[in-house]
Amino acid sequence: MLDYDEEAERYDASRGGEPRAEAAAEAVLGFVPRQTRELLDAGCGTGIVTRRLAAARAGLRVTGVDRAPAMARQAGARLPGAVVLADSRSLPFPDGRFDAVTSVWLLHLAPGPEDARAIVAECARVLRPGGMYVTTVDKAAAHNVGSDIDAVLASRPRRPARDDAGLVTEYATAYGLVPAGHALFPGRDQGRSPRSTIADLRRGWFVTLPPGEPLADAFAARLAALPDQDRRRPDPVFTLRAFRKEE
C-alpha cells in the first residue's frame, strides 16, 4: 500500500493532473442537483478535484476531508479554511449536515470490506434526506483497456476489489441510499506505458506485488520486454455511481 504522505508531492502529476481532475469534476457535478449548497468531498486528497467542484457553481460551499496530513495540507492550500484532517470512516460532522457527498477514488483504498462499508455508512449518515451521494467504483477494472500491458498483468495475484459496484450498492442500500444512476468519464492523460507501469510497480502501486520480491521482479521483466516502452496505451475509463438518500 502506498504511503500517501510520501505520495502527496507527485500525486497529481502521476495521475493525469488537471485534465483528469476536470473530467472527474464534470462527471460528478452531473449528479449534484443545482440547488445543492453544502457538499462534502470525502477522501479529497490534494484537492485537485475538490477545487473544481467548489469553483463550478456560485453558492456551492465545498468541504474536503482527508486522513493523510500531507494530502490535506495541499488541499488546504487550494481551498483555504475548507479542508479537515479526518478519517472518512469516522467523519467529524453531525447527521444530515450536507446536501451532497462525494468520494472520488477513495473506496478502492479501504484496507478491508468492513472499512469500505464504514466509509459508505458515514457518507450516508452526514447526508441530509433527499441528498445525493456520488462515488467512483471498480477503479482497478477501469485501467484494463485491453492493451499488451494488461495482458502481462492479467495473471498477477489479485485481492477482492473494495469498491466493487455490487458491494458498494449493497452497502449504500443498507444505509438508506437508493441507486440514482451511473456515468463514465475518461482518466485523461493517464494511459500507461510499459516503462511507467514498471515504475509504478517499483514504488508499490500493485499491492499484491510488493517491490523487491521475486514475483514483482518477474512481472517487471515481462513489462520491460514489451515494445514501445514509452508509448502510452489508451486512457482508463472510470465509473461513477450515484445514490439518493431516502426522505
Short overview:
It contains 10 helices and 7 strands.
Helix count equals: 10
Q: Regions with pLDDT < 50 over 5+ consecutive residues?
A: none
Structural class: alpha/beta
CATH superfamily: Vaccinia Virus protein VP39
Tally of individual domains: 1
Q: What percent of the residues sit in helical stretches (DSSP H or I)?
A: 25-40%
Distance between the termini: 38 Å
Please describe the biggest sheet, giving its number of strands, its sense, and whether it closes into a barrel. 7 strands, mixed
Oligomer: single chain
User: What CATH first level would be assigned?
Assistant: Alpha Beta
Our Rg estimate from Cα atoms comes to 18 Å
Strand arrangement, largest sheet? 3-2-1-4-5-7-6
| Amount of beta strand | 15-25%
Shape: globular
Mean pLDDT: 93
The name of the CATH topology is: Rossmann fold
* Second CATH tier, the architecture: 3-Layer(aba) Sandwich
